[in-house]
Amino acid sequence: MSQNTLIPITDQDQLAAFCDELAQSDFICVDTEFHRETTYWPKLCLIQASAPGVEALIDPLAEDLDIGPFLELIAQDTRVKVFHAARQDMEIFNRLIGHPPGPIFDTQIAAMALGLGDSISYDNLVRSVLKQQIDKSSQFTDWTRRPLSEKQRTYALGDVTFLRDAYLKMKAQLEDRDRMGWIRQEMAAMEDPELYDTSPENAWQRLKMRKPKKDYAAIMAAVAAWREKTAQDLDRPRRRILKDDAIHEIAEQRPQDEDGFNRLRAVPKGFIRSKQADGLLDTVRAAVMDPDDFAPPMEKRKQNPQTPAGAPEMLKVLLKHVSDEANVVPRLIANAADVERIARGDDPADIPAMNGWRRDLFGAKAEALLSGKLALSFEGGQVRLFEVEPES
Predict the structure, then answer these.
(1) CB 25 within 8 A of CB 50
(2) Which pLDDT does position 48 carry in this prediction?
(3) Architecture, CATH, for domain 200-294
(4) 12-196 has which fold?
(5) Longest Cα pair distance anywhere in the chain, in angstroms?
(6) Distance of CA 331 to the CA centre of its chain
(7) Residues whose CB is less than 8 angstroms from the CB of residue 338 and which lie 6 or more positions away in sequence, other chains included
(8) How do 27-35 and 80-83 pair as beta strands?
(9) Would the pTM count as exceeding 0.85?
């Protein structure tokens, strides 16, 4: 492209030419700058994209620019979309194109399989993989203002030019170590549409169910749905409509009139009379009157077997040893919940750490350790594993 890549694209013909160049590659590196401090929906302020030999900034706030050609490009499943810490970018594009833009490669997740750290920041990734330093001073500037400063534009473009170089190196390293399959499962989870579901009827799933009682659950789910719809309609952050603690207190106290709401500690006095609270009182009353119609499906609590004393601690030592040997972040193999469930003897089929490559690396050894076929020892300050000979 003849255009200066630091000047954001605001012309339809320029965007079409840029997308044509991106389409020649089997991967596209993507980043966004957005604003959502005062809104429910993120306001997309800038798109950065690169591929081998091409990079540019796209200004979605430009008055006469339709970013549809770029959205069509990343909606296609014929090329990989590369992000760093993809969750929020995926949320934006999921809304714009109607589905998550898979397949993806998240360098933050890939870094875990290369032993570079858990939730590594972008600047630390660039420092570790490319041995380069980047200036992050423009990260939290106001991306809604125009014109963007040269410092902002340089910073923004670096988010995809360094990302392109890091991706190529990391992909090669993962392939050399036969670890691409390790992270595909993690990437697939990021591409699950349910992860980006904002439907009000499912909003209760973001809250922790504090009481397994139908009447409590019905009010909690109903108020969570009301808050989600209200936040979307007003385009305001859900926490500015009603805080999570307020939803739980409403579900606990079941207020059915103005006086009842004014006695709640987590709800501002007079809130129920405000325009913002429109429909809340009716929602609570309806859930109280007919909990069966509002309560989400609730699983009966299972009586978990007793966890053998010391078993989780032994498994954590084993996990640390295995992850150090493989140079992998432990959480990529097993999280704390996995360790507890393995120690408790839960069904291995339901535990990610006991299946696939994780079983080969850790799960099978965990089973052997708990069954007495494998033992741990310390020699010279190092953990050692040894098989236990069966008694004759």
Answers:
(1) no
(2) 98
(3) Orthogonal Bundle (1.10)
(4) Nucleotidyltransferase; domain 5 (3.30.420)
(5) 82
(6) 15
(7) 351, 352, 353, 354
(8) parallel
(9) yes
